[in-house]
Design a protein that fits this description.
By secondary structure, this protein is mostly beta strands. The chain has two helices and 15 strands. Strands 1, 3, 4, 6, 11, 12, 13 and 15 form an eight-stranded antiparallel β-sheet that branches. Strands 2-5-14-7-8-9-10 form a seven-stranded antiparallel β-sheet, with no helix packed on it.
C-alpha cells in the first residue's frame, strides 16, 4: 500500500506534474495514487483553496436518492490486514443536520467480499453540530459509536487492525496513546483493498434538506502501521 498522502489538496503537486500553488489552478480530477472519481447522483469536484493551507480540496455533494454517491477511489491497498488513515472534513454547510440524518463519508471494501470492513458517517447532534459515527463489523454484530466534530476543519484518523483485533479512532487528536475511542474487534481477519472518500448513501432527510450542499475533504493519508497525527 502506498504510504504517502493521497493528494486531494495537491500539496505535493510538483510530484504529480502540476504547478504547486492554488494560483496555478486545480486539476479537474484527483491525481494518482487516487484511481478514479466515482459519482452517481452527485458531484465530486476539486476546488481551491484547500484546508490547512493546502491549495485544493475535494467538494462532495449529493443530488439524487439514497443510492447516490460522490467519492474518490483509492485502489492502492492490497489485502491489508491493518489499515490506518487520516483525512480532514469540513461539514459547516450542513447547518442543523438532523439527529437521525446523515451520509457515509468513508468506506473500505475487501476483494474477498462481505460487509465493508469499516464505514464512517457524518450525522447531526442535539446542539446543531455534527458527529462522526463508525461501524466496524465484528463477531455477533458490529462495533458502533460516535465522536463529536467541531466547527470548521476536523482531522479524523482511525486504525483498523484486523490482524490484532482492534479498532481506534482519533478526532482532532494527535496523541496516539489517547484515542477518542478504542475497542477490541473480531472481524474474521477482513482486509482492505479499496477505499472511498466522499459522500454516499445519505438518509432521505439529508437529501431533502441538503441536496446539492457540499462537504469538503482534504489531506487523506493512509498507512499500514504508523500513526499519522502531524497537525
Amino acid at each position: 500500500m502506498n504510504t504517502k498522502m493521497k493528494v486531494l489538496a495537491l500539496a505535493l503537486l510538483g510530484l504529480a506534474g502540476y504547478a504547486g500553488s492554488a494560483a496555478a489552478g486545480c486539476p479537474a480530477s484527483p491525481v494518482p495514487p487516487w484511481t478514479a472519481v466515482a459519482a452517481l447522483g452527485g458531484t465530486a469536484t476539486i476546488v481551491a483553496p484547500g484546508y490547512a493551507t493546502t491549495p485544493c480540496r475535494l467538494d462532495s455533494a449529493l443530488t439524487g436518492d439514497a443510492s447516490s454517491f460522490a467519492t474518490v477511489e483509492d485502489d492502492t491497498p492490497t489485502a491489508e490486514p491493518r489499515y490506518r488513515a487520516q483525512f480532514i472534513i469540513n461539514a459547516d454547510n450542513l447547518a442543523n443536520l438532523g439527529l437521525v440524518d446523515g451520509a457515509f463519508i468513508f468506506s473500505a471494501t475487501s476483494a474477498a467480499g462481505g460487509n465493508p470492513p469499516i464505514s464512517l458517517s457524518i450525522v447531526g447532534d442535539s446542539a446543531g453540530g455534527h458527529i462522526v459515527s463508525f461501524n466496524v463489523p465484528s463477531t455477533g454484530g458490529a462495533v458502533v459509536g460516535s465522536v463529536p466534530l467541531g466547527a470548521g476543519e476536523n482531522h479524523v484518523e482511525f486504525d483498523l487492525n484486523s490482524a490484532g483485533n482492534s479498532f481506534s479512532l482519533w478526532v482532532n487528536n494527535a496523541t496516539e496513546g489517547s484515542p477518542d475511542f478504542t475497542s477490541a474487534i473480531n472481524n474474521g481477519g477482513a482486509t482492505v483493498d479499496t477505499a472511498f472518500l466522499g459522500l454516499a448513501g445519505a438518509t432521505p432527510g439529508y437529501l431533502s434538506t441538503f441536496s446539492g450542499t457540499t462537504v469538503g475533504f482534504d489531506q487523506f493519508d493512509s498507512r499500514r502501521t504508523t500513526f499519522i497525527g502531524g497537525f
